[in-house]
Amino acid sequence: METTSAAQEGEPYTTTPEREEDRSDLKITPKVMDEAIAWNLHSHVMHGYEFLMQNYTHGDKICIFGFSRGAYTARSLAGMIGIIPAWNFQQVPFAWKMYTREDRVGWQQSKKFKETFSAHAKIEFLGVWDTVDSVGIIPRRLPFTRSNTNVKTFRHAMALDEHRVKFKFRPWEDTPPDERAFRMREKERHRRESEYDADDHKAKEEKAKEEKAKEDHSNEKAKTDVKEVWFAGAHCDVGGGSVPNETKPSLARISLRWMVRECHKTETGILFDCKKLEALGLDPAVLSKETSGSSSSPDQTAASTESTPIIPSEVHISTANESNATTVKEEKDTDLEDATSKIFDQLRRNRVWWILEFIPLMTIHRKEEQRRVWKRLGCNLGGGRVISKPKNEDTVKIHKSVYTRIMHEGYQPKARLVRNEKRASERSWPTGKENDTWHKAWRERYKVEWVD
Fold first, then answer.
1. Are 413 and 384 in contact, with CB atoms under 8 Å apart?
2. Phi and psi dihedrals of 261, rounded to 5?
3. Which Pfam families does the UniProt entry name for this protein (predicted)?
């Protein structure tokens, strides 16, 4: 990403991630303690919020990115946004305190605070890599991290081979059952309070109507454009950190190229450094042509997903003339090298992580069709993530590089692809170079879509 003066494009706010290899000795440092109990989560979110206060002007496009804990921080920051004026720093801790409250008082105060002190700001693009389900050994969960109607575009790269118990992934949910149930309970409580207070009943009824009208108006907002894609590799293979940034080949380069392409396709307006794009394996000229031709119809998109599965010899990037043929070939070679590079399993590299695998921990399971939520106590024992059957007409989106790895190495992801949560031990991935007929049947059975 190009960095210019703040007056021109806005200097990006960043925090420096730590590589897994940098903390292999597990020294007890403030940073390690922060990862354990998440005692600095509030400061990470508030620092990002203060940066926006200082730099945001009306009409700016806000794009937020994050990986791992940073991904959770990014989603938390997106949920907190209505921008306070730059001079009003003393209100930030108060805004955070209200944001972290999930009771009726907290919700009402947050709503009034935004209306009084904040300028409305929509998130143009929220791009994250492998958001973990709980932050730290002591879970810290915040409102609007599962979904957020204030986000226009959401992109999420997830790791197929991460299987540590404290690194459960957190997907996007359009209508979180727990938040929906909370709102219903609060409405019912408000109704009962109104019935017992006869003198103030009329005023409360009018207020309830106003709140319902505002809620109905908010529900009419455009639905968030969500795309969550699975990639081969463990947590730090997908988000970066398993190897130094300049290492080639690397699995992290695949998800980064995908995220850059998504930024271009959704026309975020982010300016990227052309030389760094070339170093990443992306040709800027080809990227701009892909972007200009990306507005295909839904029918064309659906037809393309039903074509023959992508294997290395069939990977193709559209070009306007033959002069780009060499570049396309180089990109294909880069894709193949990165797709077949080494996976760094942290449970093998650092066996101290196994301590948590034998500790009984509570996990939350949801059944969306019946809006049921239940908890289960058990040991993870290194078990992979569970990818359940998608709801409605959605598909499980898996990056084409995963299929490349399957075809070349007989790769078997650690994640379990299941059709029924009660049979979570079921695993079925294509092995070897199966014929297209078998692969099509497998894809239809599990509602899988290979994506670029």
1. yes
2. -60, -40
3. T6SS_Tle1-like_cat
| Amino acid in position 227 | K
- What pLDDT band is residue 37 in, cutting at 50, 70 and 90? very low
Peptide bond into 93 cis (omega under 30): no
Cα(427)–Cα(419) distance, integer angstroms: 10
Closest by CA to 256, choosing from 335, 170, 345, is 335
pLDDT at residue number 91: 79
**Which residues have CB under 8 Å from 189's CB, separation 6+?**
104
269 Rama sector, left if φ>0, alpha if ψ -120 to 50, beta otherwise? left
For the chain, the domains span 1-83+119-173+223-452, 175-221
- CB-side exposure of 410: number of CA atoms within 13 Å? 1
How is residue 305 written in tokens? 């997903």
For 51-105, the pLDDT digits (tens) are 888 888 888 899 999 998 788 888 888 877 676 776 777 778 887 777 777 667 7
What SS3 string covers the chain? CCCCCCCCCCCCCCCCCCCHHHHCCCCCCHHHHHHHHCCCHHHHHHHHHHHHHHHCCCCCCEEEEEECHHHHHHHHHHHHCCECCCCCHHHHHHHHHHHCCCCHHHHHHHHHHHHHHCECCCEEEEEEECCECCCCCCCCCCCCCCCCCCEEEEEEEEECCCCCHHHCECCCCCCCHHHHHHHHHHHHHHHHHHHHCCCCHHHHHHHHHHHHHHHHHHHCCCCCEEEEEEECCCHHHHHCCCCCCCCCCCCHHHHHHHHHHHHHHCCCCCCCCHHHHHHHCCCHHHHHHHHHCCCCCHHHHHHHHCCCCCCHHHCCCCCCCHHHHHHHHHHHHHHHHHHCCCCCCHHHHCHHHHHHHCCCEEEEEEEHHHCEEEEEEECCCCCCCEECCCCCCCCEEEEHHHHHHHHHHCCCCCCEECCCHHHCCCCCCCCCCCCHHHHHHHHHHHCEEEEC
What's the maximum distance between 2 C-alpha atoms anywhere in the chain? 80
Q: Within 10 Å of residue 203's Cβ, how many Cβ atoms?
A: 11
d(CA 136, CA 308): 42
Rounded to the nearest 10 degrees, how much is the dihedral formed by the CA atoms of 395, 128, 179, 173? -10
CA 121 to chain centre: 20
User: For residues 315 and 281, what is the distance between their CA atoms, to the nearest angstrom?
Assistant: 15
